[in-house]
Give the backbone structure.
Amino acid sequence: SPLWPGLIEAYRHRLPVTDATPVVTLQEGATPLVPARELSRRTGCEVWLKVEGANPTGSFKDRGMTMAISKAVEEGARAVICASTGNTSASAAAYAARAGLICAVLVPQGKIATGKLAQALVHGATLLQVEGNFDDCLALASKLAIDYPVSLVNSVNQFRIEGQKTASFEVVDVLGDAPDVHCLPVGNAGNITAYWQGYREYASDGPASRLPRMWGFQAAGAAPIVRGAVVEQPSTIATAIRIGNPASWSKALSARDDSAGRIDAVTDRAILAAYRLLARTEAVFVEPASAASVAGLLQVAAAGELEPGQRVVCTVTGNGLKDPEWAISGAPAPVTIPVDAAVAAAKLGL
Ligand code: F0G
């Protein structure tokens, strides 16, 4: 079919679905893989951006959510719940609305971007702001899913990982093989787990001849995997990855070690520099957390640890419009003028 049917239909034979699974889709997936000219020039590598902000709700979470919600409906669920730094709740709210399910979301009070809050509300989710961080929200959501008739759709739900692994399939389908290196931001560590699973599946039975090295990057103030210890009070401007005790911690370590990869920390300053570079030179507007993958790549390159000539894919996980404050605060204030061409020309330096 010339129309993209969504990732469950596109990769049905590689996903745990049957004819009995009611497919709940917003035609997620098939996101752009954009050549990054400036990043390639700076690193001497062939750099590509997997632009996951092009998904229906503006983040990679839609890949997992089409699976999680389809399976929840198949299993007869009437309500779903998640903890979220914002994107999971936006995606869960949208797919639950599509499926006619009740959706409850728990978010850390005051620590999620405005656009994401708007998405959960407009799609009709019931949102509770928790006096705690994401880790507290996840513990609470997990407990509620045990004690009450509600299905958990966080990435501890294996169907989420199954859906998210399709991003690796798409990369290989476009490039013809796995890249040398794949860079990702790491928060709860579900996505690096999912990509690694996808690459391994494709390498085990044909489509890919090799495996990439997985490079994950955490924000320096929320880098439990790098430090090897839970961070009780995680802190970063990249609110999407403000997580101190990742649920998929050990799987992220496996992805790193089995791929001869790395998981490093990047400062908020480096994240914002990469965020601006992406917008100005590659013309890709991402949210701050997404820029961690690119900040990390540039950091490794600056340390002389990136061999030139390699093929590198950086996933940029979420759309910049979700969290526009960083775009506005970093720019000069707009100038106001009367309806006057001469004044406009003078202000524009024409
Ligand atoms: N980038 C963005 C934009 C995210 O929203 C997240 C996670 C990540 C990266 C990290 O992915 O958790 O799989 O390692 N956001 C979750 C949420 C926690 O609730 O939306 P991860």
